[in-house]
Amino acid sequence: EAQVTQNPRYLITVTGKKLTVTCSQNMNHEYMSWYRQDPGLGLRQIYYSMNVEVTDKGDVPEGYKVSRKEKRNFPLILESPSPNQTSLYFCASSARRYNEQFFGPGTRLTVL
Amino acid sequence: GENVEQHPSTLSVQEGDSAVIKCTYSDSASNYFPWYKQELGKGPQLIIDIRSNVGEKKDQRIAVTLNKTAKHFSLHITETQPEDSAVYFCAASRGSQGNLIFGKGTKLSVKP
């Protein structure tokens, strides 16, 4: 089944404790992206990648890191999480940058 | 900077009525305009998209219109059904970069 998977689905952590949210797609897509969704603010892009080893900042990249060492994986790293990073995070992938994006199921992160 | 404005933020219609959601964008280089539907607890899913060389596109009960001169595009849902209840997001491509800007979303409620 073609899909985007994210792990974990739910995470509660404390300020300053490094964490990684994994994202993997099995559709051989070139384009991958991370978004955060907050009430009243819609979807805001954090980082995106147009291919392996190519990453670019989105609209809200501060406090986040990403890497794209393999085509299928695009992990999101929070080196020192803070409470304002409490949010619902979505990973997405598409064949090319302006094609249908397939979203993962979301990761709900709470930083205390 | 570039932005996408979406209206209304909430919309309530009676089953069988039509629903219209409108978006305006600021980047004159935008040429790809997708619409996503997000059901409760799930990631967004593409329902229809349009590119700048087309003024209108229809898929069964869903249609999108684009006015490039005025920089606005709209989603039209006819004969609404309770299962159309969801949050809908419009988006526009960024001409200078390889990513999308999303509107803040419209919560559509269809009352039986």
What is the compact description of this entry?
Chain A is mostly beta strands and 112 residues long. Chain A is 0% helix and 51% strand. In chain B, the strands form two sheets. In chain B, strands 2, 4, 5, 9, 10 and 11 form a six-stranded mixed beta sheet that branches. A five-stranded antiparallel beta sheet of chain B has the order 1-3-8-7-6, with no helix packed on it.
Helix segment count of chain B? 0
Largest sheet of chain A: 7 strands, mixed
Percentage of helical residues of chain A?
under 10%
Give the largest chain-chain interface (CB within 8 Å). A-B, 25 and 22 residues
Q: Looking at the chains present, what oligomeric state does this protein adopt?
A: heterodimer
Measured distance between first and last alpha carbons of chain B: 41 Å
Uncertain ranges of chain A: none
Q: Which structural category fits the helices and strands of chain B?
A: mainly beta
- Please count the beta strands of chain A (DSSP E, at least 2 residues each): 11
- Uncertain runs of chain B: none
Q: What is the helix fraction of residues of chain B, given as a range? A: under 10%
Largest sheet of chain B: 6 strands, mixed
Amino- and carboxy-terminal Cα gap of chain A: 36 Å
Radius of gyration of chain B from CA coordinates: 14 Å
Mean pLDDT of chain B: 94
Mean pLDDT of chain A equals 96
